[in-house]
Each structure stands twice: as structure tokens, then as C-alpha cells.
Design goal:
CATH architecture of the largest domain: Alpha-Beta Complex
Protein name: Ribosomal lysine N-methyltransferase 4
Keywords: Methyltransferase, Nucleus, S-adenosyl-L-methionine, Transferase
Subcellular location: Nucleus
Strand content: 5-15%
Bound molecules: S-adenosylmethionine
GO molecular function: protein-lysine N-methyltransferase activity
Distance between the termini: 88 Å
CATH class of the largest domain: Alpha Beta
Shape: globular
Family: Belongs to the class V-like SAM-binding methyltransferase superfamily. Histone-lysine methyltransferase family. SETD6 subfamily.
Helix content: 40-55%
Number of domains: 2
Structural class: alpha+beta
Length: 499
């Protein structure tokens, strides 16, 4: 079973040195909730079976495209096209402009030309994501700055490579975003091997070259996190890739596989000269062949891939068990300032020290509803008396993450402030989903994302409020049990009562 639209591509793949077990794997359209176009098992397949292999020279990256060489490696670097994703995007636009003259022509034909990701949403739809971490991570402005500053001038400098008549069709800002989104939703972080030169066509069909050495995981898809996690990644991310020995690469066939939380049944492994998709469990005939995108939370799935995972959750609700919500450190600071009546500047020294010591500036709450130790430690740091703060600084150690009443009080306020950042309540979102008739797909996915975040916030908040109540009850009991007169003298509450 296969799709007619993929036949030319599959022939190209096999004729170019790729192998695929076509008795075991086919392609078909699943429901959109299951990923649309994807791969299916045509028979029962045992664990540890290789379904297809991709020679490294068939992967498309700025190492395998011949554009940097034609452009001149030196000038490529001078124009910083080796940093960030702009160089790879330019390679992909250029390869795409060559159509079937490109080595990857039939492969490029299989790639989507439109995306449902928030990068392409209207302002109105983006407002539905208010409060979530999606919007600030889109990186649209950074991407467009790269396009205007680096890519346009590179294109204009070489009319022989980028004929002026082709620019509006193949090198527009819109095409730049499409290529960026192809990379974001389909690329793999492929670790380099010692023999890094796998660009040449002379390597085609060299079965003897294939290593039987130890297979290792290939990091699947871009997995940057935190505020630098832009669709077009910050240059420093690419520098890290350089250091880590990773090539962000498009990998034919492998990128036809969908993924769903906890469903992985195959994984991409690499060997010296090729990548191998190998089953990680037995797959029954008719089942979808699922890769993994690292079981991302819905806010990241939506931003990178344009879909969300909706599965049954413990307690009856539906959502993504991998959901997370981010709390910025400045919200903790603002909770402290409003509670203590001080301004943020008076805590600046402590915050600077916290960051210098490597403390987090974003805390991540998960569906275990635990409070990250770092948020408790930062909160305690803010609450320390001047003497205690001097001591902590002297020792070079942030305070222990103990959840006592003052700390609980402040984290509760920070969570309440975080909840207030959304423009709708959790109840409203639940009602919106009950009557979803006529709702746009973008809005539907946005509500799923923000509801997932809010559930974590509300459940964690409830837990903390219970903990605080228990803490207070404990301290009240201790006060009550204290004898009227001890060797230390009357308790504070007794003193007060006598006045
Ligand atoms: C690597 S591609 C997978 C192949 C893709 N379905 C195709 O037709 O080429 C990733 C894209 O597939 C879709 N996808 C993958 N898994 C999905 C899922 N569980 N639910 C919905 N869409 C999914 C999303 O559009 C995502 O951006």
C-alpha cells in the first residue's frame, strides 16, 4: 500500500542508495487527529527490524547542499550564513528553485507548502494564545531580521546563483518562512561522524561503506527549550550545534512518520554512513508506524508542528500528559514586592547573584504538580533577612528549597498572578470546548494548549494551598501546646494576650 503522490519519490530514494522494506511499510492517510499522511505496517513486524535506511549523503543540510561551495565557503562564513538556520534555509530555497535538477528534487516535492503553525496565524488567532509560552517563542521578528540582514544581501550579491527573475517566486520572505517551518517540523539533529564528508555523489550506492558499528540515537527534531527557542534558532544555538557535532538535516522518508505521546514504535539510529529506522517494539499489521518527537507538551507541539496531542488523563479529563507551564522568575519577584511592599530594585542584588550562580529565570511546572526546587529556593532567597542574605552569599549557596509558610504564601501569589495572565478562565475554556461548533481549528488548538497549562497551574495551586493550611494548622497546634511558662519565658502569643 502506498500513495501515488509518493511513487516518484520512493523510486528516486531507492535508486539513490536508500533502502526500504516495502513489504513491511506502506503510506496512507490516517485521520487528521492521527497525523494525516503517515506510515503503516503492512504486516506484523517484530522488534529490532530495520524498516528503511537513508545514506547520509541523501540527508539535506548545509553540509550536503552544494550551495555553500558554489557561493564560496569563506564568504558564506563572512556573511554568517553558517550561523543559525538562515544558511540552511537559503540552501533549501536554492535546491527548491532547481526543481528536478536538484539532487533532492523528488524529495522536495513531498514537502508541505503551507503550515497550520502559529507562525502563520493572524493576530486575532494569536490572541487566543495569550498567556501561553507559544507567542513569545515564535521568533518571527528574529527570523525576518535574519532574512533581511543576511539572506537578501547574499542573494543580491550573486545573480549568477539567484537569477533576479526567480527571486519573487523562490526567495521571498514567505518562502523563507515556509522553509523555516519545514525545518522546524521535519528536521533531525543528526550527529556527525568522524568521517564528516558525505556530500559527494561518488558515495552513492556504496553498500560496502555501510558500517555495522554501534547504533546510537539520533536526536529527533529541534528540541531547544527556554526563551531562545525560536523557530529560527538564535545563532548561539547553532554554535552549540557546531560544538556538539550536530547537523540540522532534512531526512527523506524518516520525516513522513507522525508521532503521538507515548506511541513510539520506531526510532532513527545512525551509523557511520547511513541512518536507520528500526522498530523499538512489535508492530501489528495495520498499525501506524510512530516516530517520537520527544513527547513534547502541547504548547511546543503547536508551535513547532501545528498539532496537539489529546489523550485520556487520569481523573477523566483529556489532554497531553507531557504538558508544562512556564513561570518566569520576575513573577516571583513581583509577588514578593507586592507582599513585602518593597520595589523590585531593592531585590536586584539578590536576583543578580541568583542568576550569576546559575539560577533559573524560568521555572517549569509539570503534570506531577510538584513545585520545582529552584522556585522555592529563589523565593526563600528573597525572604531572607539582611544577615541571612549576607551569610548565603558568603557561602556561595542559594537557600534550601524548604516549603515553609512564607515561601508557600509567595509561590501561591506568583501562581495566582500567572493565572491572571490568561484572558479567559479555566471554566470558560472548558465551556468553549463543550460547544465547539463553528469554532476555527486554530482557536480549538489554542484553547487546548491554554487549558492544559491552566490545569497544571490550578492543581498545583490547590496543592500548595492545602500544604499552607496544613503548615498553619501545625504551627497553631504548636503554639497551643506550648506551656504558659517555660524556661524561655512566655510565647509571643501569650505576651500578646497579657497586654
Ligand atoms: C514529520 S511530519 C510527519 C508527516 C506528515 N504527516 C506528512 O504528511 O508529511 C510532521 C507533521 O505531521 C503532522 N503530525 C504528526 N503527528 C501528528 C499527530 N499526532 N496529530 C496531528 N498531526 C500530526 C503535523 O502536521 C506535523 O507538523
Amino acid at each position: 500500500m502506498s500513495l501515488p503522490e509518493l511513487e516518484q519519490f520512493l523510486s528516486w530514494f531507492q535508486n539513490s542508495g536508500g533502502t526500504i522494506d516495502r513489504d513491511a511499510i506502506g503510506f496512507k492517510y490516517f485521520s487528521s487527529a492521527e497525523g494525516g499522511r503517515g506510515a503503516v505496517a503492512l504486516k506484523n513486524i517484530e522488534k529490532d527490524q530495520t524498516l528503511f535506511t537513508i545514506p547520509r549523503y541523501l540527508t539535506l543540510s548545509s553540509k550536503t547542499s552544494t550551495l555553500p561551495e558554489k557561493f564560496g565557503h569563506k564568504i558564506w562564513k563572512e556573511r554568517a550564513l553558517d550561523k543559525g538556520w538562515s544558511g540552511l534555509i537559503l540552501c533549501m530555497m536554492w535546491e527548491d528553485a532547481q526543481a528536478l535538477n536538484s539532487k533532492w528534487g523528488p524529495y522536495l516535492e513531498t514537502l508541505p507548502t503551507a503550515f497550520d503553525t502559529p507562525m502563520f496565524w493572524s493576530e486575532k488567532d494569536l490572541q487566543e494564545l495569550e498567556g501561553t509560552s507559544v507567542v513569545e517563542k515564535l521568533g518571527k521578528e528574529d527570523a525576518e531580521r535574519d532574512y533581511h540582514d543576511k539572506v537578501v544581501s547574499a542573494i543580491q550579491s550573486r545573480p549568477d546563483l539567484f537569477p533576479p527573475g526567480t527571486i519573487t517566486i523562490h526567495y521571498s520572505l514567505e518562502r523563507y518562512h515556509v522553509m523555516g517551518s519545514r525545518i522546524l517540523s521535519r528536521s533531525f539533529d543528526v550527529e556527525r561522524t568522524n568521517t564528516d564528508d558525505y556530500t559527494g555523489d561518488e558515495e552513492m550506492n556504496t553498500d560496502a561503506d555501510r558500517s555495522t558499528g554501534n547504533a546510537m540515537d539520533v536526536d529527533v527534531h529541534d528540541e531547544q527549550a527556554g526563551k531562545e527557542d525560536n523557530s529560527i534558532r538564535a545563532p548561539e544555538d547553532e554554535e552549540e550545534d557546531e560544538e556538539d557535532g550536530i547537523d540540522v538535516s532534512m531526512v527523506p522518508i524518516a520525516d513522513l512518520l507522525n508521532a503521538r505521546f507515548g506511541s513510539e514504535n520506531v526510532k532513527l539510529f545512525y551509523e557511520e554512513n547511513e541512518l536507520k529506522m528500526i522498530t523499538t517494539k512489535r508492530i501489528s499489521a495495520g498499525e501506524q508506524i510512530w516516530n517520537t518527537y520527544d513527547d513534547l507538551p502541547n504548547n511546543e507541539l503547536l508551535r513547532k508542528y501545528g498539532h496537539v496531542d489529546i489523550l485520556p488523563l487520569p481523573g477523566g479529563a483529556k489532554g497531553n500528559p507531557a504538558d508544562v507551564v512556564e513561570i518566569r522568575a520576575d513573577l516571583v519577584l513581583s509577588a514578593f514586592s507586592s507582599q513585602s511592599g518593597t520595589d523590585a530594585a531593592s531585590s536586584a542584588e539578590r536576583i543578580d547573584w541568583w542568576l550569576e550562580e546559575g539560577g533559573d529565570d524560568i521555572f517549569v511546572l509539570e503534570t506531577d504538580y510538584e513545585v520545582p526546587e529552584a522556585i522555592a529556593s529563589l523565593t526563600r532567597l528573597l525572604c531572607l533577612s539582611s544577615d541571612e542574605w549576607e551569610k548565603a552569599r558568603g557561602k556561595g549557596k542559594p537557600p534550601k528549597p524548604k516549603l515553609d509558610s512564607p515561601v508557600l504564601d509567595l509561590i501561591i501569589i506568583a501562581l495566582q498572578k500567572r493565572i491572571a495572565q490568561y484572558s479567559s478562565t479555566m471554566k470558560e475554556d472548558e465551556q468553549i470546548l463543550e460547544t465547539k461548533e463553528g469554532m476555527s481549528f486554530n482557536k480549538y488548538q489554542a484553547v487546548i494548549v491554554r487549558l492544559g497549562e491552566k490545569r497544571i497551574l490550578h492543581t498545583t495551586l490547590q496543592r500548595l494551598q492545602n500544604l499552607l493550611a496544613a503548615e498553619k494548622a501545625k504551627s497553631d497546634n504548636t503554639q497551643k501546646r506550648k506551656p504558659v511558662s517555660t524556661f524561655e519565658g512566655p510565647s509571643k502569643s501569650m505576651k500578646k494576650a497579657r497586654r
